[in-house]
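#lab-general

N.A. 3:47 PM
ok so I finally got the sequence cleaned up, no stray characters, all 216 residues accounted for. can someone with queue access submit it? mine expired

B.Y. 3:52 PM
send it over

N.A. 3:53 PM
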Amino acid sequence: MVDSPPRAALCIFADGEKETDAVIEQLSTALQREQKLWLVQEISLRTGFAFPVPDMVHKLYLTKELKGEADFIQGGGNWTISDRVVEAIEDLEPGVHRYWPVDVFNKDGSLAGRWWFLNICNRLDTLDLEKSKVKGKLKEPYGFLVPDFIFSLNYEPLPNGPELLVCRRDAIKNHAVWCEYRLQNSTFISNTLKERLDAFDPPLTGIGFELQTGLS
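B.Y. 4:20 PM
back already:
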């Protein structure tokens, strides 16, 4: 137990290891003056599992200039999204996903604004294995028996190339964004959500999407 919880967790997005080390050393000194407990780590909320929303606001310090009002800030395994992306997801799939508040700071230390870490809370088994062109087969990635949910498929996505994965239409019905049960580090969005994002005015910034799946 600790006397009090941390007020902020710290995430660093930098260009290289040396720069990251320098930033961490500088910020850690300041943080230790402000609070007894602080944390520097990279976590992935894109696994499909729901995590409790912390009772604190994260702080994200950029070491590269933020170009405009970015809708997506990628790094550290997380998707950091803007208010309007949150609204688009919630309009299509209300109350399913979770959003961790994060204050984003520019390279000069000024506050850029409030964004959100997206905790994707759908972990779906949607693949039509008979029709998907996957390389390899089901495997146990760690070389020993593990729970079935950690099994994965090997596949090699070809950007803008032939469809390699085929999803079952009935399995993705009414879902906006999800992680695939049989694929590691995979995030999928529905055509409906993509259409919403493509309709943004001003246009969506910070991320692009590639068609890599078909429907059966």
